[in-house]
Amino acid sequence: xxxxxxxxxxxxxxxxxxxxxxxxxxNKIFKDFNDSKRLKSKExxxxxxxxxxxxxxxxxxxxxxxxxxxxxxxxxxxxxxxxAIKSLKVAPDHLLIDHYRLPGIDISQTPITKGDSIxxxxxxxxxxxxxxxxxxxxxxxxxxxxxxxDRNFGYGxxxxxxxxVRSGPTNHHRQKFIPVDKILQREFNFCKxxxx
Length: 196
Known about the structure:
By secondary structure, the protein is an alpha/beta fold. The chain contains 7 helices and 5 strands; from the N terminus they run E-E-H-E-H-H-E-E-H-H-H-H. It has a 5-stranded mixed sheet. It starts with a strand and ends with a helix.
């Protein structure tokens, strides 16, 4: 039982980090699986439905912003991986992990650089993590108006940074991730323009 593991949201300014863990059937090829970031939203949704139906089992681990702010993104990522593995209904014999070696676990593992483009099970985990996180962010967008979360999903787009400048960070923002240098530069430029 080989389990692929990947995350979504590691580089976002806002929201949780989500890990996906997927065990696919042995000797079955899923030709459309790929890094979730390279897929269109509809493609991800369709593949997510396929994974839910065809995988031996799958699970997620969600770590909220309070934990990220307190312990840092690396520790939060490891915690999300552990949670995703623990949520599986079938215990894996081996882990294939995108890029990282996971500490604190007694299951054999292989970290693979750019694994979501190489391994089908890691790609499947990437899709599960991304679709799960996007759904969480779409719900959060209904409460946090003006930050564009339904489009940027918490990542540092220009609109998102402008919203932070305008309205300030929320309690869903990651304190150490807010690009202070860009915000100060924008505020400085706004002040210069307003004085003219």
